[in-house]
# Entry
Amino acid sequence: MSNYLSIKNNQCVKVADIPVLGYGDFLQMNAAFAEDSSFHCVSYFGMPAGAGLRLFCCMADDFTGTIRISSSIVNPDRRAGFPSLTARHLSFHCFERELHEDHGIRYSDHPWLKPIRYPFSRHDRQSDMTSYPFYSVDSEELHEVGVGPVHAGIIEPGHFRFICDGEQVLHLEIQLGYQHRGVESLFLQHDKLLQRTILAESIAGDTVVGHALAFVSLWESLCGYIPSYRLMLARTIASELERIAIHTGDLSAICTDIAYQLGSSVFGRLRTPVVNTFQEWCGNRLAKGLIRAGVDRYPLVDRIRQNIIDMLDQYEADFSEMYERMKNLPGVLARLERTGILTTGQAYDIGAVGMSARASGLMRDIRWTHPYALYGKIPHQPVIKHHGDVYSRTQIRHAEIIQSVRHIRRMLEEVPCESPTEAAVLRPVPGSFSLSLTEGWRGEICHCAITGDNGELIHYKIKDPSLHNWMALALAVRNNEISDFPICNKSFNLSYCGHDL
# Structure
């Protein structure tokens, strides 16, 4: 018998078919996978199993397009502590910190075993945000700068603690956990499909399509439902429209942070018609209500199709002109180039995903490696940059917008004439496990679900790409002036609520 079960994205399998290993074998095997650059961990979590805790590790093989699932049952009260995967590969640090915080698992050699979220249901209720153990240096020459958790702008709450030598940042530690909705537990408490779909849409307000698509794809796989071509077409187009909208808004914000007013105004204006297209399509500018399991509530009719084409015609010319102006200004390039560098090695070590990873030379794009919806049928090629600085992350946004426009135009040429089908009756298969990966505009989203003996949800696990990439920001800001932190921060544009859940 194999030590792991190999599945495809959105494939439903029996929980009983997932091998249970001794912890030593579990540790050795998954650590070995992580040392191979074609693998990365997409999810690692625990759920109660009798008196113990069953750990599930999901390692994506980006070369073969499969995910290797393995498990191990451990006693979380073991005082001696377990050897950690993090000590063998840093990319596991966020998962094991969560296991420690939620379930009290001790690790004997974890290098940075600090709270990560402060959820209400945390194992140690004495662990308090006011006593977070920030790294500090006893020095008369260095000083600390605290920013947040209440900010001057409209961003969400998070605390940033800098250690500086004059204006130079030597170290940044980011403390989150200020807002929790208990999203994962609410998936179990609510038994209506509509309630769960609305929850998925609310995980991160700027990634409605990305998270909603992950949930409905997962739910359909649990129920053995295969969506029609027309349904997958609409979902893929919506995904790329969301990418265009948020990337455009981010370019506006980047221009704002470097005081380039023209770029800020024009890119900000160009975002509006994109989100207004969602308003015309489904009645919501963020696409809430558009994606539902087993049904096409808002068909891609000729009127909507033509609206999208007309919008792209007007958008593309203005966008390209504005970007050409911006990238040819020496003052803009002076602020973006060689600022906030995340090296390829750092991105690999921390398990960076999505746009942030691709700007640092890593090929992390679920649309290419583990395709879903129609991504296996359209000629998608990930955009990769290698300098890892703010300018690379700006270039990625520009290139992906142009690419998304081309994808949408091509897909709109192939809208089938089939009539929308009635809503399917979806009932999950009992005793099942399924995993869904999507590539949100920010990066890799992963939803995992396990059903019980009657098909009810007994465990639901969510991973937003921000869980990996906040560490990328902390590394990228080192050796920069503290005044460059806003532009570094905006170049990643990570989610607070997506992290905290």
